[in-house]
Specification:
This protein is an alpha/beta fold. The protein is built from 26 helices and 22 strands. A 7-stranded mixed β-sheet has the order 6-7-4-3-2-5-8.
Length: 702
């Protein structure tokens, strides 16, 4: 694509002008020609058929009619104003109605004139009616053009755009102007050998056919080509970044396994490592011996033993004369890491400290001194770790928990805490589908812990409808009688916090009534409580002083209570699959059998049904994440919005997995053969990095 032409402000396109340009920018984010070119149709409508009025029925999706306007009038006052038009052909009369843009429609429609009318038919008072149809004055040329345009593009528009005559039809006209003016300026971005190997059409044709296909085959070829290109360039950027990092940044060498690692492994580890944990440790060992900076993503379900792997990697760093740190997104999580690591290493083995926003000034001073002297080996904290005052003597390893909660700059600042950047181990308990991991974290090496430690029993998941509350209460009473504890979680949807708080308080009243004092003690935690009150309630539950914790989703990542054996999720249909899975992972942490009860309304949408059935059927986080991707699309999976990587206009990671694999494979082959993209046939790819389209504009630390 001739970058300069396509960076032309949209104001200069024929048919736009200042007022329309402003509304295009505000409503659709279209600032330059390229933005408009990539505003792809969201549907295609067959316009080859013309109906007679008597053959129209409201079940048809869209119809096209040639009819003459016989009457029009504006009815109603202010808020009930509408334009009613009667149109007639040789078989009958139909009514057309406008409730918005009345002035414009009234002005542009003339009584006595014939029109090509297109829209969704409906019935009103027993008559055929069409609301807000597209109207084009009839002529033999117009009819011929419509008849030839097998698939007419439908573009997303808004009410504001429509008031500037930029409905789907108006946008179609602008697109036609753009292609007339600039089609010859669309440059190729893929090498010829790739185009031939994958039988792709050229780029200019792809843009022409995606907007104005003459048949289904042309549309398929255009979509295939542009999707491949999108995925290919993302992989090209990610793998180029990875290559640059391995060439540019040397890594600290952890060449010995010493006293700390061995003592912990032989005497302190509370349970044998699983095969998956051993495999991941081996991958990390190989990484940290190569003299190249490690950047590894560690995926594993809640309870799969990621913390032990992280701790053993930190002990490896200490054995080689380095310090290590863990950065967690919240104080609760940082605290939890601190407590679990302290309990794993015991007293006097290795010095571990905690640094969060709550750490007192006096404690900080001591902590900073010990870090600089090298006496403090492991520091656990929130983003307080990235403050300039926090200086290490020799930082060799950074562990980042739930990385999607941190911005690129925050991570980059940790890199700069040593002259040779520390190794990075990123942990996530949100299972990420393979295709998403390849796109979001494509420049990281991925390790997966896919088995649970011995002795962990799978959680039994039950789905009860609103009408089945009694068995749920029965289960809770049985478990409390056995000395266990229970979570009851309510959804919190921000738009209706008042309503949600009411749900929570109503729920709390019901539970308090069903589980009266003094026999039962109930805690409550929600976002409106002060941090100190929240902590106090959490601590009461952790210590076993309360039997039931009624909460909003604040407990999704956080407290570890091995004694909790029941998780009840109210309005479970209002949660996404990943969130349900995360919540379920709060129980099943002890050796006892645990339950997750999904409570839902009696009426469920198709998606809601699939989500709850999936939860009952499987405990496998990766299988769940794949179904979640299919149901919700990649843009809604936690963390993807902030990444900027997933700015996919056309490709869909749920639907186009095979295409992504192909693109990834071919990019790997290219870099294996030509890491600098110096060969003549790859010059086209090299130049892609200089433009906005390709671009190493990302921070290297992504």
């Amino acid at each position: 694509m001739n970058a300069q032409v396509f960076q032309t402000p949209i104001d200069y396109l024929k048919g736009v002008g200042t007022a329309r340009a402003d509304v295009l920018k505000k409503e659709l984010g279209i600032f330059v020609y390229e933005d408009l070119l990539k505003h792809y149709p969201f549907k295609y409508i067959d316009r080859t058929r013309f109906y007679k009025i008597r053959d129209i029925n409201p079940d048809l999706p869209h119809v096209q009619v040639i009819a003459r306007v016989t009457h029009k009038e504006v009815l109603g006052e202010k808020h009930t104003k509408r334009l009613i038009v009667h149109a007639m052909d040789d078989t009958g009369i139909m009514e057309l109605a406008w409730f918005q843009g009345i002035k414009w429609a009234d002005k542009s429609i003339a009584v006595g004139k014939a029109y090509i009318i297109f829209g969704k038919p409906g019935m009103f008072n027993g008559k055929t009616q069409m609301s807000h149809p597209e109207m084009e004055p009839y002529s033999t040329e117009a009819k011929k053009r419509m008849g030839n345009l097998t698939l007419q593009p439908g573009y997303n528009s808004t009410e504001k755009l429509k008031s500037f005559s930029l409905d789907s039809k108006g946008l179609q006209k602008l697109m036609a102007n753009l292609l007339d003016q600039c089609l010859r300026d669309i440059r190729e971005t893929l090498p010829l050998y790739i185009i031939q190997r994958f039988k792709l059409i050229n780029r200019a044709d792809a843009y022409r056919y995606i907007h104005f296909p003459e048949n289904a085959q042309q549309l398929y070829e255009a979509q295939h080509r542009l999707k491949f290109e999108e995925l290919f360039h993302i992989q090209l950027k990610l793998l180029k970044n990875k290559l640059i990092r391995t060439q540019k940044f040397k890594g600290n060498v952890f060449d010995k396994v010493g006293e700390y690692f061995n003592t912990f492994y032989e005497h302190k580890i509370p349970f044998p490592l699983t095969g998956a944990q051993k495999r991941v440790l081996k991958e990390i060992r190989i990484d940290t011996q190569r003299g190249v900076q490690m950047n590894r993503l560690l995926q594993g379900d809640v309870g799969s033993g990621k913390t032990v792997v992280a701790l053993m990697t930190m002990l490896l760093a200490i054995d080689n004369g380095f310090q290590a740190c863990i950065m967690a997104p919240t104080e609760i999580l940082a605290n939890q890491h601190f407590l679990s690591i302290q309990s794993l290493v015991g007293d006097g083995f290795v010095e571990v400290a905690l640094l969060t926003g709550s750490t007192k000034k006096k404690e900080r001073k001591v902590l900073h001194e010990k870090l600089l002297s090298g006496e403090l080996k492991i520091l656990i904290g929130t983003h307080a770790l990235i403050e300039d005052a926090v200086q290490f003597q020799n930082l060799g390893l950074v562990v980042i928990d739930e990385q999607h909660r941190f911005g690129v700059e925050q991570r980059a600042r940790l890199w700069k805490k040593n002259t040779i950047p520390p190794h990075v181990l990123v942990m996530t308990a949100t299972p990420i589908p393979r295709t998403l991991a390849m796109t979001l974290y494509g420049d990281l090496d991925v390790s997966v812990i896919d088995e649970l430690p011995a002795g962990r029993k799978p959680i039994e998941t039950l789905h009860y409808y609103e009408s089945q509350r009694l068995p749920m209460f029965g289960l809770i009473k049985r478990e409390i009688a056995l000395g266990r504890q229970v979570y009851i979680v309510y959804p919190l949807i921000q738009e209706s916090e008042k309503l949600d708080l009411k749900n929570l308080m109503d729920g709390f009243d019901t539970i308090s009534h069903e589980f009266p004092k003094p026999q039962y003690q109930v805690s409550i935690v929600h976002g409106k409580l002060k941090a100190s009150e929240k902590d106090e309630e959490m601590q009461r539950f952790v210590k076993g002083e309360t039997h039931i914790m009624v909460a909003t989703t604040v407990i999704e990542v956080g407290v570890n209570v091995p004694n909790a054996s029941v998780m009840v999720i109210e309005n479970a249909e209002r949660f996404g699959l990943s969130q349900l899975h995360q919540l379920r992972g709060r129980v099943g942490r002890g050796a006892e059998k645990s339950y997750c009860v999904l409570m839902s309304g009696n009426k469920l949408s198709r998606e809601g049904k699939i989500r709850l059935e999936t939860m009952v059927r499987t405990n496998n986080g990766f299988e769940i994440s794949e179904i979640d991707l299919q149901l919700r699309g990649p843009g809604n999976i936690e963390g993807t919005q902030q990444s900027g990587v997933l700015d996919l206009k056309l490709a869909d990671l749920a639907q186009d997995q095979e295409l992504l694999m192909q693109a990834r494979k071919v990019v790997e082959e290219i870099f294996a053969k030509d890491p600098q993209l110096a060969l003549p046939e790859n010059q086209i790819l090299q130049s892609a990095f200089q433009t906005k389209n390709g671009g190493l504009s990302w921070d290297k630390i992504s």
